[in-house]
Amino acid sequence: MNLEEIRAQFPLLHQKINGYPLVYLDNAASSQKPDSVINCIASYYREINANVHRGIHTLSQEATVKMEQSREKVRDFIGAKSEKEIIFTSGTSHSINLLAHSFGSFIAKGDEIIVSHLEHHSNIVPWQMLCQRTGAILKVIPIDDQGALDMDVFQSLLSSQTKLVAVNHISNALGVINPIQEIIQKAHGVGAKVMIDGAQAVPHLPIDVTGLDVDFYVFSAHKMYGPTGVGILYGKQELLEQMPPFMGGGEMIREVRFEGSTYADLPFKFEPGTPNIAGNIALGAAIDFMNSLGVENIQNHEKKLMAYAKEKLIQIENLTVYALDLDTAGAISFNLNLPGVHPSDLGMILDKQGIAIRTGHHCTQPIMSRLGVLGTARASFCVYNTFEEIDLLVKGIEKAKQLLL
Ligand code: C6P
95, 250, 286, 290: most buried by Cβ count inside 10 Å? Predict the structure, then answer.
């Protein structure tokens, strides 16, 4: 890992914020983009821009080829069997809502859906809405004080009523890596399907959906060096084939008549309207970037950063570090134990020193209630972060403490 070479590819990192060199530690919210991704978007609009799957003319065909090449890169990157299993969406939230409607059409009154206490709101609210529509029941896997899922309770929640288990691979709020292999095996044992929210995992770990035997896996491009407004729904082909479309419109049809319409084959059945063509192509460029470094190498570097951050942060007096003893990746949450101090106070003082972290509930209010806090301060890493940046974070927290005492 040549960090200097890697950082040189990210133009945004080389600026000053409030007079200090930027220390960007908000990658779980959205990572920065390398030149290759930025250039890919610009050159698409400069040289190719045309609608896909609709034109006989050269540009339209070129755009179609590029977008389908990108779909193939996604397929390969996550180990799916067929490009028919890769649906472009606008992000993780869109992918989960698609499932809640489409797979949701198989859910009836009295059926059960299991989520965990560790979920992002995007993996809670769509299922609550589905339960309201259908009379299905939402069950929740509890967590312990550190943020680990209670797997015994999970086992006891599973029954023949369970139709879907929807949990994240890695928690965005605490960075906890969940035992998804075990979750998938246990859920399949009672005939339930499993959806894994991989928004915080795909940027950090190698993913093999076929090896995992997972039914659905969802993620966003913008957290893995790609553009915003692009996401993926992976689904096993036989399941996607059974599921009705989520939204209707152009290009998702085979034939439209006023008496009734028929739908296109996978994956297009789930992709109505003009997609985010530039963005979908640029996701391929983001995957090329990650592959050029090697996902295992990215993971190893980030593991070292996480271990270093834990080691340094626990040395700060009056600082609670969450999920300290658990296997974590990507994000680390902490709070200053000073009366009347909110995590956003810390966030603002760090920002004055050019350090970007996220503070608040991180769209995970149930986790915050479970921890008995309003919010946390969260630093999140990716491949371009350095040990020096963690030292600056620690220095910044010490300085904030003095100002807030
Ligand atoms: N978490 C964070 O700062 P979208 O916004 O659709 O790309 O992703 C939603 C989402 C779903 N699941 C998990 C585990 C996530 O982390 C996120 C996004 C960001 O933690 C923004 S709230």
Answer: 95
